[in-house]
Design brief:
Elements: H1 4-19, H2 24-30, H3 35-43, H4 50-60, E1 71-72, E2 75-76, H5 80-86, H6 100-111, H7 114-127
Antiparallel strand pairs: 1-2
């Protein structure tokens, strides 16, 4: 049975990889392993060694602490600051931030210049009846 921390670290790995638009194969090549190992890391079925975590952090351009963000004790929880910052009355649906579609939306949003981003945000607000 996978440990909750290994599952959390794997989810953070998947989230960052998808945000950068990397395939499991591209990430595996960057750290000189097979893509199947990335699959096992992301599912939490295989633990990530300290040296491998270091390599993955470098390849994904994050600090090692990134993989542990959001941990509260042994169970990952949504930080209350995220709720306030992003306007969630409650925690987002389980796995929402891990969905490929969500990560694609975020990635493409940040590729836009400032003015189109602002207009897209205004459109989203209007469509959600908060504008």
């Amino acid at each position: 049975m996978a440990h909750p921390i290994d599952i959390h670290v794997g989810k953070r790995l998947r989230q960052r990889r998808r945000l950068l638009g990397l395939t499991q194969e591209k990430l595996a090549n960057a750290v000189d392993i097979r893509f199947q190992q990335i699959q096992k890391y992301e599912s939490g079925s295989n633990r990530i060694s300290a040296s491998r975590l270091w390599s993955l952090a470098k390849a994904l351009d994050v600090s090692i602490s990134y993989f542990f963000e959001g941990m509260n004790g042994a169970e990952p929880k949504l930080d209350i600051n995220l709720r306030e910052e992003y306007g969630f009355a409650e925690a987002p649906a389980e796995g929402l931030l891990e969905e490929k579609e969500t990560m694609d939306l975020v990635r493409y949003y940040y590729r836009l210049d400032e003015e189109p981003r602002r207009r897209l945000l205004d459109l989203a607000r209007a469509l959600s009846n908060e504008g």
